[in-house]
Automatic annotation (TrEMBL):
<keyword id="KW-1133">Transmembrane helix</keyword>
<dbReference type="Pfam" id="PF01841">
    <property type="entry name" value="Transglut_core"/>
</dbReference>
<feature type="transmembrane region" description="Helical">
    <location>
        <begin position="153"/>
        <end position="176"/>
    </location>
</feature>
<protein>
    <submittedName>
        <fullName>Transglutaminase domain-containing protein</fullName>
    </submittedName>
</protein>
<feature type="transmembrane region" description="Helical">
    <location>
        <begin position="42"/>
        <end position="62"/>
    </location>
</feature>
<feature type="transmembrane region" description="Helical">
    <location>
        <begin position="104"/>
        <end position="121"/>
    </location>
</feature>
<keyword id="KW-0472">Membrane</keyword>
<feature type="domain" description="Transglutaminase-like">
    <location>
        <begin position="295"/>
        <end position="358"/>
    </location>
</feature>
<keyword id="KW-0812">Transmembrane</keyword>
<dbReference type="InterPro" id="IPR038765">
    <property type="entry name" value="Papain-like_cys_pep_sf"/>
</dbReference>
<feature type="transmembrane region" description="Helical">
    <location>
        <begin position="13"/>
        <end position="30"/>
    </location>
</feature>
<dbReference type="InterPro" id="IPR002931">
    <property type="entry name" value="Transglutaminase-like"/>
</dbReference>
Amino acid sequence: MSGDGWTIFDANWVTWILLAVVAFSLYQGIRRGASGSVKQLLFFLVSAIVSVIVIILSAVAASSVSPYLKDWLIERDLVRPKADASFFAQFGYTALSGLRDLPLLRFSALFLVFHTIVRLLTGLATRLVASVISFPFSIVPTGGTVSRSIGGVIGAALGTGRALLFTAVLFAYCALFPQGPFTDYIGQSGLYREVAAQVIRPATGKLFEEKLPVFAQAMTSELDQLWQKRYDVIDADLPANIVQAAASVTEGKPDDEAKARALYDWIGSRISYDNDKVVAYEEKGDWREQNPEQTFATRKGVCIDYARLYAAMARSVNLDVRVVTGLGYDGRGGYGPHAWNEVYLTKQQKWIPLDSTWAKTGNWFDSPGFSDTHIRQGGLTG
């Protein structure tokens, strides 16, 4: 028992799993004897060293290649497919534009590629090196009390190493998800707390507890952006009546700004906010996903539906537009989840924000105080 009152017999499953890992490795060591246990231990150590080297090499390679891939994609001058383009054309554009615009996604994709290649190349070499190093021990007899005793000691050491790795994984989970569903339960394991405090935390320093959550937050933001980009694909195939409506609304408009303003006025004045949809989600957890066609037909929706319909109609008349998600001012001193758009004006060579959901409350087409009431949180498509 330690100072904080835990014992190895507490009822926490994490404690028992850690003990089971060591106990099973001990049993394997006794069964294999000295020779087999040494081979297993050496293979474990070589594999761990090789894994670290592979991760470092893959990370360095991905970091080095990432800017070149970005420049290559920029030089390709990707053009958004037309609204009637095939699913594969839309998906290809979304994937490539994501790699071009999202640095962590680009790094992760390259890392996986390099890691897979290097791992395949080193897999056979790892076994070969472990076999060569352990060859002198192959002449040691595997039977007998002494051999099995030595094997048990080596097995226990191997089990301890495995338990440390498992504890490190749990420690990383707790750092990434401090409010996660299992975090509190993991922390209730006395054995986990002791190993984390005495071994993992001193060994990793600030990597897990400070840097890893920051990286995870940035990655989550990019994944959110990529998730929002799915609208580029699923909203691409518009029915003729929406395309015709967009063409009619923007007919005779001289430039991008006039077209964008006309669509903002049309959607903002004709679509009604669906309060029932909000209540169903907040009180029952019932989220009613709807596409631009449904929003156009029912003339009802919430902010993301306004934004998706605007983006779809704008793209059908060759405007370059984004769907943005984040927080919007709720009028009561706080902020809540919200979605809006940004459209690119060719003459001005800039993106401007607009919020057709709020159009009935005032001018939210590139208004001066737009950034004071809208906080982007990573969701961005286009």
